[in-house]
Amino acid sequence: MPGVHHLIDFAQPEVFPNMLEERVCDYVSDRRWDLNRIAVVLGDDWIPVFRSTKTPEPEMGEDILAWLLTSDGAFSIKSACSLYLSPSDNSKAKLFSKIWKLEAPQRLHTFCWLVANEVLLTNEIRVKRNMTHDGSCVSCGEAIESMFHVIRDCRVARQTWMSIDTRLRFGNFFNTPLLPWLLENLSSQSLFKGVHWPLLFVCTMNALWLRRNKVIFDSDEAVAENSIHFLAFRLAKDYSMAQLELAQSRKKKEIDLHDTRSLVLAIRNRCSRLTSWNIHHQFREANTCADRLAHFGHSLPSGCHIFFTLPSCISLAFHADSIGIALPRVVSI
Ligand SMILES: [Zn+2]
Predict the structure, then answer these.
(1) Phi, psi (5° rounding) for residue 13?
(2) What is the domain count for the chain?
């Protein structure tokens, strides 16, 4: 039926196995809807719906499968995505976008994605899968070990987050539900001791999870409760430093390939010796006299030279400048 997914979902009496093979056309008799039968199976409310729908005709050919979300019935990825990303899933799509764009090691992207989908193998899930009999938290033993318990609500997790930043106790950090909590912290622009908060946030979640795994599977290797925040901060800081060095080496490479490399390096060298400086760029055409004098200076002995008449090398440029001769130049904008 057009616009109706499965009529079987609306059946009023029990649906017997022999009815499962029935088609809509089986409820047509002499090219008219068998309304009595339809009323018995679906109820009287459906009679107007069938009356307003054209009966199927054998001459029209066999039934075909059609995709409900497109006007021509043809499947398209776009329509399937729009179904998946319905308004209720917008915030989740936004969150996943944040996760993949996060400036963090690749493995933390994956970890964060697992957190957002709540698929970390906690004791709560292990009990359901008969992998263990004890679903309680291995760190505190005070609650069932859910994912959110490990990464935020456990006493050990709270202590770690507070050690990272004591101000977290004042906001909604410990009260926000999982998805808004992730979205809010991954969207933060703030810096904490020189490290972007989203990076430190993910590193801390990961350090808590890794420590929990160590406690269960390799307890000798587990770090002390009061050291988890050091571990998280060091990972975040090391990654930030590595990114900074990478950016600087890329910049250096760009300069190395520049055709005025020596000039750029000389300017940088001078600037590094000054406490404050400003750089103003002026096109060469607007500075022809100074440019030609600088070239002329290479042919002179070192020392101060005073000219009482215009040196021939700049006379043309000087007169051209004095009468305002324009020198057009194509500049990209
Ligand atoms: Zn706990």
Answers:
(1) -80, 175
(2) 3
